[in-house]
Design brief:
about 400 residues; alpha/beta; globular
Length: about 400
Amino acid sequence: MTHPFPQPEIQPFERLHPTDGLLINAERWSKAHEYHRLRQNTHYQSLNQPGIVCGLGVRSIPAPRQVEAKYRDGRWLQIQPGIAIDVMGNLIVVTASYDFPIDLEVASSEPLTIYLVVSYVDPDELRRGQQRDIVQETYRIDQKNSTPEASEIEICRILLEPGQNVISQAADAFYPGYNNIDLRYRRYAQARPQALVRIAQVSHGEDGEYARNFFNLAYLLQSVEALYPRLRGADEPSEVPLSENIQEYDLLYLTGKESLFLNDFEFNALKNYLNLGGILLIDAPLDANNLIESTHALAQQLETPLKPLTELQRSHPLRTKPFLFSALPIINQQLIQLFLGGGIILIVGDLASAWGIDREFNLPRLTIRTAQELGINILNYAWKRRQLLGLQQEDNLGKW
């Protein structure tokens, strides 16, 4: 289980110990104030996530008159005043509007995503021509064609076409097109989630059914932060075979109808994954008898036979945390069943089919929400199980 943002360094704080007659020089004065700054930053970094606090809007503008004629194109933006906080807890304060040219060129024939970012600048790291009693913390605005680094705050992005010299506002802010200012991916400062949940869908055999619910996994991940802010879903689910490295994922999702047959390498890889806290979620349609029977056989082989949820404790986290379930959801007019053994969860009833928007737009909102809430219980169980097992391992620093 990884965290969406870096954790503070685990190191002791050192503060000045005042005594009568202590001589206060520049070094000691700086040390005394640095303690409070680092403590404040660590407090923010521990409990909150970086992002924009307010402002920092972006609009397209004509090229300023004072620039040379060769730079007067249609790719000038104006960043509005605002405040952000970076991943280290540093305040970034933009006090006045800032005119900025987008001058990166698209070298290939394909469109290129340009990111406009702002980052904190420590005045102690700047060269100063003369010493001053007061120095101002400042910032730097950059454009780049790679994903922003952890220390950078995204202001906007633009999908720029080759040879395009005009950047404009989007006609629909929710669906910007080429060469439009895209503000949809800005992250805002708020309480940080405890962990980032990563999901991968497992491909198996020649079963063409295995990928049918893939896009609904994305809907579930998108719902996590809104319904249960302590967790955050990864941006997109992945697809992996069991023969690849699966340890980076907190939950593996598998569906289809064919029997689940594993070779020795896949079996050992899955066994090791489950022993380290991972969860294998098998979501079987009601008529997927081969998959259901082979899943029970796999659990027996792993010496963790599956038991129905009704035989587990009433307070089991799959039933109670964070959402309370007495009866399980009804999907497609059928009550789903849930079985658990070790790190394997077997759902009979095609739960993921109700995690997203169906093709005919027939699923009631209550059905979708109830299915998502049970899905979040499963993700929360996966996170907690991996955390509890991970805390009993030697190399768990920064993971849990």
